[in-house]
Design a protein that fits this description.
Blueprint lengths: L16 E4 L2 H12 L2 E7 L2 E7 L2 E7 L26
Length: about 90
């Protein structure tokens, strides 16, 4: 399959995406603990991008109605691993 997307935005990095209960509180914590800088925050749908050093993290609130839950709601972790192999 050979698909081309004509988009002016080109992303060449992989960003971790965290789903948490209380994204605003998490952003505040990352700012205090790690000196995170807020790059973007949307309120509906909840989505934010922060920078810690040279690394960008994306995060959002939980959306249980869509099956998106944070680690506290699941008594553990929401780690999902998606691997893409490009030849």
């Amino acid at each position: 399959m050979n698909a081309t997307v004509n988009s002016p935005i080109k992303i060449h990095e992989v960003y971790p995406y965290l789903r948490v209960g209380g994204a605003a509180r998490a952003i505040d914590f990352y700012a205090r603990a790690f000196g995170a800088k807020e790059l973007l925050r949307l309120t509906e749908p909840s989505h934010a991008e922060i920078k810690i050093g040279d690394s960008t993290l994306m995060l959002s609130d939980e959306y249980p109605e869509l099956g998106i839950r944070g680690p506290l709601a699941l008594d553990g972790t929401t780690l999902r691993s998606t691997c893409t192999w490009i030849v």
